[in-house]
Give the backbone structure.
Amino acid sequence: MNLFTKQDLYRFLGIVMIWHLCSVLSAQVNPVRMIERAPDPHGYPRPVRDAVHVPLNTSFFFQLAVPEESEGDRMCPESLTVRLVPEKDTDTVDLISEGGIFVTGVSGQINLFPLDGRENALLSVYIEPGQPLKPSETYIVHIMASTEQGAVFADGTPLYSPSSLSFGAWGGIRQPAGPYRWRFTTEPAEEPGIVDLGIDFNAPPVKWHGAFFSGFCNVQFCTSESLYGPTYEMMATTREIHPRAWSYQRDFWLTGTQHSRSTIFSGSLPNIVREKETRRITEMEELTGKGLLLHLEDFFGHQQYGIPSGRPVSADYHPGYIVLVADGTNYELSEVLAVDDTAGTVLISPIAGPAGGWRLDYPAAPSTVENPDMPGLFAPGATYLRRFDPHGTAVYYWERVNKEWDMVVTRYGRRVMPNFVDAPGCLSAQGRSGVAPKDYVQYHEVTRTITGYLIDRYSDAALDFVWSVFNEPDLNRFWLDDWDELLRFYDYTVDAILRAFEDRGYDSDKVFVGGLELGGIFGANLRLQDFLMHCSPRVEATGEQRVNAAYADPRLDGLRSRRVETLCSMNAGRGSPCDFISIHLYNNATMSARKLEIAKQTALEIDEEFFKELWINSHEACPEWSPIPDPAFSDSYLGNGYFKTWTIDLVTRQLRKAGCDPRFAYGETIMTTWPPPANFNGYNSLSRNIRVDNSGGGRADQIETVPNPIFHVLTLLSDMGDDYWLLPVFEERGHVVSGFASRDEAGVVRLILYTHNEQDTQSQSDVLFEAALEIINTEWTGDVDITEYRFDRKHNSYFQEARELRDLKDVDSLAYERWYGIVDRIQEAEGEVFINARNDLLSFLQVYMADQYAEIEDLILNAPEDELRATIAQLRGQNFEGGFLSQQRAYTPEQAGKIADLAQLRATNIRNATATTDEPLRLSINVAGNGLNMVVLRPAR
């Protein structure tokens, strides 16, 4: 039987012809593409494709980009139109009409940004519809846009793509329905039913070893007291009532140095150690047939390390020594051939040098004025001569560490994390950050010295410190060597830390050591296997690191720690102490909890006995660590409820896993924080500094520091103890509804009930959940006092008022014009033109950021050009209405006073109930979408 009919033939030929047409068209004009980002938690386009239960008040955000192949093309904002088409109704909703104009009642921003060095190649669109959408309706978003050269938006799919063709009932070919559009479905109109919840205190609790959001990660090292001081005092006052709150602080890593060329974040690094033999190279002179003559001088700031000026070169360098020439990026080894004290030169064997030449000069003139918040004077960059073999003599500078940690540990009583990330200072084998030391025994002694200094200074408090090794080595940015070298570095570091404690009579088994601090940006794929296999004394790992490197080094005989000696001697040299590993969490709560679970599960599968009490920490945690252009990012941190419920949902997921398997009940999390922002830009911070104009002159003459709502939530969370009882979990309309409770020794019950919608990052749903709660066995009879603290975008939050102030339109338009002009010039300029643009930037910031100018001036002057461009581009990307310049606005005392009043923690409901021995205590609690209620119950006094 012939199964191939004439109709089939025509259909086949038609497909071939259209396929050919598609190829021709796509070869001629590549389509504008939609920029896509997975919703984890902030994604775009937003609402995400095929989302359900989208809030009726949702906003929209998407980005369109010029095709990568199109040189010099730009997006045309005036070509943009956006329309919503409901599937069940004929009433379309126009949002942006022809000409790129917002329809009456609709608001938002349409902005052009550079992309991959191409000017105006990215069109960023944010839309507030101005009225609710219809409930339970599926909408299709229609977008039209084009570029100057005629490329049109086709959502990354060529027009008439054969892969999206369909056949009708009669075999005809239909044009695809999807290339220009995406769908989403709104939430229903009716309120959800009553959610029945219960807690039975007769049931065994989940016992947690550790803490939840007990502190914060500071993204810099030295703290500006003018910037952070009021926040630290706020923490201190809070801890008088809530002693477990804000007890832990992680700073930028302890061993960080500025010997490499500066980054925008490195101006406050500790700079603890250098070598006294190190010299700066001022000139290189090739002597034909003889070698390379290096003209030397003392490195800038050498006196701070106790190094006398003008020491003879021959005291440090001799013929036959192997030396390292490095400029923070490039490095080469050579041999000393001759030394001349009179000329201050060293002759070395020839070296090739980098293609662009050695960077001999400092990126900027070293500052000669000390910042009181950052003791010491240091100069990033330049090129240095260092001893390699034999290595040099370590010398130390302690004042920056003392300044910061005397304040944190001694004045405020917090634990800190000494973080050893790489070979510090001149110990680096490559003269740059992120690599191993040139001599591990020297590094062992330096690490032992640093640790010993901290123990001597802070005494028994050092036993409570968290001693961590590495920072995000899986990202190939903070660790540039291979993984075998990483394992070796870990062994020497941990052994030196433990030995320093033992030298002072402490039991090193009580020292909490571990690390990795994985960036974990590849979802649930965590690079843990090699490290955990190496630390286990029972698993025979392969490769070079079968045994502990410090234990195997005969040069450390008599210098090792007892803890390492005991572990390795009983296990054929295998094993390395590891009390915790840390995974950084910048995901939605589901993925964040999953990462922590996978980390512990991996450890248990490798060595169930050795890792049964391994803590899985997160020393950096929040939904997103750096700003993205979608205003939903800012709103989620401004107090709309999302960030608060993200933290509680993460805790709930951890407790639920621990309830199933107690081996997962070990760990501590802390929040990643940036310095307090000025005014109402939203990002992960604990407080904000409102600029107040008391004199009416238009400029700030006072700073009012107020807590962010997350501060109060995590403070109350700290009161909940270590024993937890879990509420059931309900999932309704994209919201998780659940919670947990604790009971302290005095019998006081604290209960958190929350809802969290991972995709509603702007918290725009108006859904309200009514929970009917039964509490069994409170151990009380009689009257009960009930205090409720409600947190959502309308309660214990200044979110709505802050948005109104943030979005005021009266910022000087000339300031906007000047700002955009400067940042655009910085992106494009080179040489002297770049320097002029940078100077104009500093002049601008001196006016509009006067209260922070002293802190940012050196950073801007010392930042490499490419990093400064990237940072400024990011600032420009945030500059919607209410962006960077809005942060520099000064508000009236009345405006600032209202925010300060709303920022105070208040009980939202105080009531009484009666408890009996034979009946559950019943409560009715209303919880908003992305809201939480902390309820405190105690016998009436």
